[in-house]
Design a protein that fits this description.
Strand content: over 45%
Order of helices and strands: EEEEEEEEEE
Radius of gyration: 15 Å
Helix content: under 10%
CATH class: Mainly Beta
Number of strands: 10
Structural class: mainly beta
Strand order of the largest sheet: 1-8-4-5
Number of helices: 0
CATH topology: Jelly Rolls
Largest sheet: 4 strands, antiparallel
Distance between the termini: 29 Å
């Protein structure tokens, strides 16, 4: 993911989202130091946004770097609207400075997910 090229994962809501405590897990493979913005949107409205700085794992390693962030969110969304998790690199020189960990435990981390209330 290069600077200005967000990645998104979307899900069509079956029902409105309840208010409560959420958990974002966003372990990733980090190639160079990078700041990543994570946003959660429902029906186009932002429920959560946080910037996090990542440094690569040990030199030459492609092990996942752990990141999780609990957050509180109000009730939102309606059935048929989209819930979106968006990742955006804020500063990087390489095209793929942060890669969501799609290998899970094989890369020493977790596959990114949202735990809903």
């Amino acid at each position: 993911m290069g600077v200005g090229d967000p990645l998104e994962a979307a899900f069509t809501l079956k029902a409105p989202l309840r208010a409560g405590r959420w958990l974002l897990v966003a372990d990733g493979i980090v190639i160079e130091p990078v700041d990543v913005r994570f946003e959660v949107l429902a029906g186009g409205a932002s429920l959560f946004a946080i910037d996090h700085h990542f440094d690569p794992a040990a030199a030459g390693s492609f092990d996942a770097v752990a990141f999780e962030a609990p957050f509180e969110a109000e009730a939102a969304g309606e059935a048929g609207e989209r819930l979106v998790l968006r990742f955006s690199a804020m500063n990087a020189t390489l095209e793929m400075s942060y890669i969501p960990n799609g290998d899970g435990a094989l890369a020493g981390g977790r596959i990114p997910f949202l735990d809903l209330p």
